[in-house]
């Protein structure tokens, strides 16, 4: 009823396939590996689930995935809504949200690396056997194999074993399934408690955020337009909290220049605290009217690049952080001394007379 999806890409061409769709049952840890010629669209992904999951098991209640274009599209959301499944997308820069699929991918890559060492392009020939082996191995979380959790018994590895593991009657099979289900459920609870104890030993409780609150955002995974990454600020902002999605995910009000999803895990945030030693941050200066149009003060120009027949300049605004830096065309710059200063500091960025870049 609860599944997780992910893709393995960058594989060598094997029988026309370069991609693998990983489907994980989050309860039994059973997997399905589906070889694909390329990354599918949202419609193709929905059809793959119908063929490889729904017809064999059931319609899921929840589907966990990353924020790939297949899973953020309106087609995918409408498909999940029509079958009664909720869409659970991982928060920004926090792959642990879809940890079970990520772990299944690691196991898959390790197995394929072993069996295809001599001929990597033959990985699609071994994919079914890797899936069978994964579902036959005992999982440390449940103490049972995925086959035992989902089927109620361990299928034979060789025909000679069928006599000793065959199911003699329907009633016996049902009782065995119920017993395995209870064992798996208790084992999962124990594994969850054990994992929580280990993780909580080095983890602190996250602050409780509320809409309207100001927070700092870690710049670790944000692409900044700066000369030195080492000397860049560790945190950006402050930004306003728009909504609290759940205790682990928060939606922020980001500037338009930041081309990232506004939902972040709380591990990437920290609240803005007032202090008598540190003056409160001032709001950015408003625009001035120059010739009837809004204009902003510029600290300096950082770089130049050619776009079409003209040039664009990277602007560092007065009173705004690094996340607000933006490329603007030459016509937007009212003070020519800014361009002369950039030419003096970065002569290598400008075309030589009579030449082209």
From TrEMBL:
This is Integrase catalytic domain-containing protein. Its main location: nucleus. Residues 296-354 form the Chromo domain. One of its GO terms (molecular function) is nucleic acid binding. It is found in: Nucleus. InterPro entries: Chromo-like_dom_sf, Chromo/chromo_shadow_dom, Chromo_domain, Integrase_cat-core, Retrovirus_Pol_polyprotein, RNaseH-like_sf, RNaseH_sf, SH3_Tf2-1. PANTHER family: INTEGRASE CATALYTIC DOMAIN-CONTAINING PROTEIN, PROTEIN CBG26694. The lineage of its organism: Eukaryota, Metazoa, Chordata, Craniata, Vertebrata.
């Amino acid at each position: 009823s609860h599944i997780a999806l992910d893709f393995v890409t960058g594989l060598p061409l094997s029988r026309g396939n370069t991609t693998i769709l990983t489907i994980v049952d989050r309860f039994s840890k059973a997997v399905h590996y589906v070889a694909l010629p390329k990354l599918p669209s949202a419609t193709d992904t929905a059809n793959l689930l119908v063929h490889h999951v729904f017809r064999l098991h059931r319609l899921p209640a929840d589907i966990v995935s990353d924020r790939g274009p297949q899973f953020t599209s309106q087609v995918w959301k409408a498909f999940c809504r029509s079958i009664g499944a909720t869409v659970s997308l991982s928060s920004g820069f926090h792959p642990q949200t879809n940890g079970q699929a990520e772990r299944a991918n690691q196991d898959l890559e390790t197995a394929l690396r072993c069996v295809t060492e001599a001929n990597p392009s033959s990985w699609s020939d071994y994919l079914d056997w890797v899936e069978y082996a994964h579902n036959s191995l005992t999982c440390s979380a449940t103490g049972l194999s995925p086959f035992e959790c989902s089927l109620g018994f361990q299928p034979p590895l060789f025909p000679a074993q069928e006599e000793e593991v065959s199911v003699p009657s329907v009633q016996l099979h049902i009782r065995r399934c119920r017993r395995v289900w209870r064992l798996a459920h208790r084992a999962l609870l124990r594994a969850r408690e054990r994992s929580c104890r280990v993780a909580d030993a080095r983890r602190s409780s996250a602050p409780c955020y509320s809409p309207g609150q100001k927070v700092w955002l870690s710049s670790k995974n944000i692409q900044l337009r700066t000369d030195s990454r080492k000397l860049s600020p560790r945190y950006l902002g402050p930004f306003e909290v728009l909504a609290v999605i759940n205790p682990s995910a928060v939606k922020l009000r980001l500037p338009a220049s930041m081309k990232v999803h506004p939902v972040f895990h709380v591990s990437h945030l920290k609240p803005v605290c007032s202090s008598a030693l540190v003056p409160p941050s001032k709001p950015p200066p408003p625009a001035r009217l120059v010739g009837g149009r809004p204009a902003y003060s510029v600290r300096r120009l950082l770089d130049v690049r050619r776009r079409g027949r003209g040039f664009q300049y990277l602007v560092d605004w007065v009173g705004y952080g690094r996340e607000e830096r933006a490329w603007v065309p030459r016509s937007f710059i009212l003070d020519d001394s800014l361009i002369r200063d950039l030419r003096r500091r970065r002569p290598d960025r400008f075309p030589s007379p009579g030449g082209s870049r």
